[in-house]
Amino acid sequence: xxxxxxxxKVGRKDDQGKRRWDLLPWGAVEEIVKVxxxxxxxxxxxxxxxxPNSRVRYFAAAMRHMVxxxxxxxxxKEDGCSHLAHAACCIIFLMHNLDGDGQQEKRASQVxxxxxx
Length: 117
Known about the structure:
It contains four helices and no strands. Residues 111-117 have low confidence and may be disordered. By secondary structure, it is mostly helical. It has helices at residues 26-43, 54-70, 83-97, 103-110. It is elongated. α1 crosses α3 (83-97) and α2 runs antiparallel to α3 (83-97). It has one domain.
């Protein structure tokens, strides 16, 4: 069977109204992934999902990293990653763990803890 040819010189792609993933700053995303990899090596994959009182603790952690960055410290002394990437990671955890009424956080605390390495 022969491939269908397009009569115009300009291709068509119906992607209106779809997510614009091309707008993400991939270098910044990569810095967040580095923080996630370091956390996975230290605590275990996805351990962040099971932290008790995560709403308060990740907010506090995000603010500590923001204040360190604001005060001129670009990189975290513990792992060498960007303080802003750490703060962004904490905010992503907050976004994931809370569905408005804390139910997801409550459910996560009821799930058995993963084994630590």
